[in-house]
Amino acid sequence: MDDETKSKANGAYELMREHVDVHNAMVLITENAVAKVFRQHPWPITRENMAVFDVNLHGEVSELWEAFRDGRINARCDKAEKMEALGLPALTCAEEEIADIIIRALDTANALGVDVRRAIAVKHAYNTTRPILHGGKLA
After folding, report:
1. Is 139 a member of any domain?
2. What is the mean pLDDT of residues 83-104?
């Protein structure tokens, strides 16, 4: 690999590593999941538990697709009134579902012991070196 590509990848890695603080978010998400008895901590990584993580994450992605399909993607989410009653800003369906996807992914990462900050920084750095339409993929 040439020096320019290596430099680009390392620059992207350092930038992401310095500015993305998902670790603290991940810890808070797991603490809430345990406090609300959504799951225990540590979560034994069994086939059944991994299936629960995967199905829950898939469910959130499906809810995002359903909101888009139904033309509600930028509409207020179904919890908007409750959010406002708590003094929180109301979210759109897109915002709520993207947040749910991220929350589920971070909780799964914590259960698996993934260093999310490092994984994101490395994967982003790697992606900066990939050619346009790598592999001919359109999506």
Report:
1. no
2. 91
- Please compute the mean of the pLDDT values over residues 85-94 and round it to a whole number: 91
- Those residues with Cβ within 8 angstroms of residue 137's Cβ, 6 or more apart along the chain or in another chain: none
81 close to 128: Cβ distance less than 8 angstroms: no
CB under 8 A, 24+ apart: contacts of 129-136: 129/1, 129/5, 129/8, 129/9
- Where residue 68 falls among pLDDT bands split at 50, 70, 90? very high
Q: Is residue 35 part of a domain?
A: yes
Which of helix, strand or coil describes residue 76?
strand
Structure tokens at 86: 């708590």
Decide if 127 contacts 11 (C-beta within 8 A).
no
Q: What is the pTM of this model?
A: 0.76
- Greater model confidence, 41 or 29: 29
- Give the chain's mean pLDDT: 84
95 located within any domain: yes
Domain assignment of residue 61, yes or no:
yes
- Overall domain count for the chain: 1
Task: Name the residue range of residue 51's domain.
Answer: 3-132
Examine residue 42 and say whether the peptide bond preceding it is cis (omega within 30 degrees of 0): yes
Which amino acid appears at position 123 of this protein?
A: K
Contact between 30 and 41 under an 8 Å Cβ cutoff? The reply is yes
